Amino acid sequence: MHLGHDAAVPSGVSRRTFAALTGAAALGALVAVPRAAAAPAVAPGLDDPAKKETAMKLVSSAENSSLDWKAQYAYIEDIGDGRGYTAGIIGFCSGTGDMLDLVQLYADRGPGNVLAPYLPALRRVNGTDSHAGLDPDFPRNWRTAAQDAVFQQAQNDERDRVYFDPAVRRGKADGLRALGQFAYYDAIVMHGDGTDVTGFRAIRERALWSAEPPARGGDETVYLDAFLDARVWAMKQEEAHSDTSRVDTAQRVFLRNGNLDLNPPLDWRVYGDSYHID
After folding, report:
1. Within-domain flag for 24
2. Alpha-carbon distance 259 to 83, whole Å?
3. Residue 29 resides in a domain
4. Is 152 helix (H, G, I), strand (E, B) or coil?
5. What distance in Å separates the CA atoms of residue 161 and residue 81, rounded to the nearest whole number?
6. Domain-located, residue 20
7. Burial 136-150 (b: 16+ CB within 10 A, else e)
8. Is the Cβ–Cβ distance between 203 and 227 less than 8 Å?
9. Which end of the chain is more exposed for a tag (fewer CB within 10 A), N or C?
């Protein structure tokens, strides 16, 4: 930058140094230094407390025909699906092992509780629909245990360990937002995470035959459509789960509305009943 003859040079500073300093200042005034772009806000995942509460209500609407999921700690009945007793906030089953794990955890945390004596029977009936060693008092004692905060917390913890946390983790790994994470969660709740043809892993693999998840460069809506199609196929393989309204008039409705973040208000129907979350 040329320094005019009338510019005052401070005492003790050479003309060349002054020129360099004033030139840099002028350049800084003329050239705007671009700021780093702010990172886009990341929408809360299903593990956000408010989203998780929504997930619990959605599952309860399908499993218990109620949004009051906390009232389900005491729920227990045999729904005739070949899994023995179904009970609690997520449908722990005497025939699939998750009820056994829950009661064992409860016995570890609260020795001598009313369900601990049933551990041997739960081990024997695991893998069957038998009530041997459980009837006639197991349902009554389950409802008694459900009043114990220790048992309630054990149900929460087993739900998270076996179903919720794995579903959210896998959903995030596939690049899915809250709705997709919920679709995974609801599928694991109903079908389990085993290796059978109707389990969650098989459902996901079936979806991957026709679509890629966002983490692999795919379109999220297209992939979730494929996943829900695979889920419906799996449900129809079992008479007890052949009503697919929890997908058709609930999850699919949210997807059609473009509500990939599962934001309220939400309106859906399950088994013909209507539900709403503000």
Report:
1. no
2. 34
3. no
4. helix
5. 24
6. no
7. eebbebbeebbebee
8. yes
9. C
